[in-house]
Amino acid sequence: MTIETAPSRPSYPVRIAAAAGVPLLGLARRIVAGFVAWQDRRAIASLHGLDDAMLSDIGISRADVYGALDVPFGEQPSRHLVARVEERRSAERELSREARRAARLIASAEPRTAADAAASVVPLRGRDAA
Predict the structure, then answer these.
(1) Which residues are within 8 A (CB) of 16 and not within 5 positions of it... i.e. 6 or more apart?
(2) In angstroms, how far is CA 69 from the centroid of its own chain?
(3) Cα-flanking dihedrals φ and ψ of residue 11, to 5°?
(4) Is residue 5's pLDDT more than 60?
(5) What are phi and psi of 87, to 5 degrees?
(6) What are the residue boundaries of the YjiS-like domain, all occurrences included (predicted)?
(7) Count of domains in the chain?
(8) 44 C-beta neighbours (distance < 10 Å), count
(9) Residues 70-118 pLDDT 10s
(10) Please, where are the H alpha helices in the chain?
């Protein structure tokens, strides 16, 4: 013996979304993205409780945390934080390269003797000369 049941009706939120013309998959994606962004924002906010030395140990600054929490709600703050850290690391690498390049140029220059250095000094004239 089989029992036939009436076709089930969609839930109330599903009916509202369908009536509004919002595809269910798009609505579900927005809900999940909002939840993920909220969790991400809470994790970044927990970094606010660390002191500056601890933040420095993990390679971020307090300004990075504030900047990440300042992004609009729909965006994930961790992406912003990672981008800021990568920008800083890239700039530090470039400065390091330039310093090494300058050190190589100085090292490759001819060594100067005391006589050469004395000859290149311009004597003072006028009232500054003693």
Answers:
(1) none
(2) 11
(3) -65, 165
(4) no
(5) -60, -45
(6) 38-66
(7) 1
(8) 22
(9) 888 777 888 888 898 899 889 999 999 999 988 888 877 765 666 666 6
(10) 12-20, 24-47, 52-57, 62-69, 77-108, 114-119
Q: Please report the pLDDT score of residue 54 as a whole number.
A: 92
Structural domain boundaries enclosing 35: 22-107
**Within a domain: 86:** yes
Helix 77-108 and helix 62-69, axial crossing angle in degrees, nearest 10: 140
3-state secondary structure of 3: coil
Through-space distance between the first and last CA atoms of the chain, rounded to whole angstroms: 122
> In this predicted model, what pLDDT tens digit does every residue of 37-58 receive, in sequence order?
888 888 888 988 899 999 888 8
What's the CA gap between 68 and 75, in Å, rounded? 10
| 123 domain residue, yes or no | no
In a domain, 126, yes or no: no
Which residue in the block uniquely carries the two structure tokens 């004239």? Answer: 125
Q: Which residue shows structure tokens 């390269």?
A: 97
CA-CA distance, 19 to 103, in Å (whole number)? 70
Give the whole-angstrom CA distance, residue 74 versus residue 40. 11
In a domain, 122, yes or no: no
